[in-house]
Amino acid sequence: MRTRASQEELNEIKNAMNTEKRARIFKRYQALYLFLSGKTCKEVASIVGITANTVCNLHKIYQKEGLEGIPDKPISGRPPRLTSEQRVALKQVIINKVPSEVGFAAEFNWTAGLIGKYIKREYGYDYSIRGITGMLERMGLSYTRPTYVLAQADKQKQEQFVKDFEQVKKTPE
């Protein structure tokens, strides 16, 4: 199935490709552009890395709806393990309590690992650190790695260390 498009249509698709920031949509525009430039569905599929069936479907959508029909619907993803009530309760615990108040002795700051242990203990689910930080972001909480600053540090000793360190870096071995 070969189809050619006018130069005006190709320019419109090319402009859409140049302004698109999402890789998945860019691929779709690229596939449509190549197909309408005269390549077969199989050729386009091997170039872009999608199936020939997808290329043909993109062309059908383009014929019906134009470029507006090409961007895809959002991918739903996996449903969350914790219910919305559990997520609200977890957020309240993180905001209002320190770990030592909920049974983690000698811990005074929430870390992703501690949150994971709390979720496992309270709800029975295992989360990776990355999964926890993503969930915190979706809950509207920001997660930062802790940094430590010595409040009683001697400024003169720090400055001397920096000078000494710079000198050592310049010294050939």
Can you offer a commentary on this structure?
With 173 residues, the protein is mainly α. It has 2 domains: 7-69; 81-173, no CATH class. Helix content is 58%, strand content 0%. The chain contains 8 helices and no strands. It has helices spanning 7-19, 23-36, 41-48, 52-65, 84-96, 112-123, 129-138, 155-170. Helix 1 runs antiparallel to helix 2 and helix 3 crosses helix 4 (52-65). The longest helix is centred in the last third of the chain and has 16 residues, at 155-170. It is flat and about 75 Å long.
Helix content: 55-70%
- Structural class, by secondary structure, is mainly alpha
Number of helices: 8
How far is it from the N-terminal to the C-terminal residue, by CA? 68 Å
Main sheet summary:
none
In terms of DSSP E residues, the strand content is: under 5%
Mean pLDDT: 87
List unreliable stretches of 5+ residues.
none
Write down the domain tally.
2
- Could you give the order of the helices and strands? HHHHHHHH
What is the global morphology? flat
- The beta-strand count equals 0
Gyration radius, in Å: 27 Å
Outline the fold blueprint.
Layout: H1 7-19, H2 23-36, H3 41-48, H4 52-65, H5 84-96, H6 112-123, H7 129-138, H8 155-170
Helix pairs in contact: 1-2, 2-3, 2-4, 3-4, 6-7
Summarize the structure.
By secondary structure, the chain is an all-alpha fold. 58% of the residues lie in helices and 0% in strands. It starts with 6 loop residues before the first helix and ends with a helix.
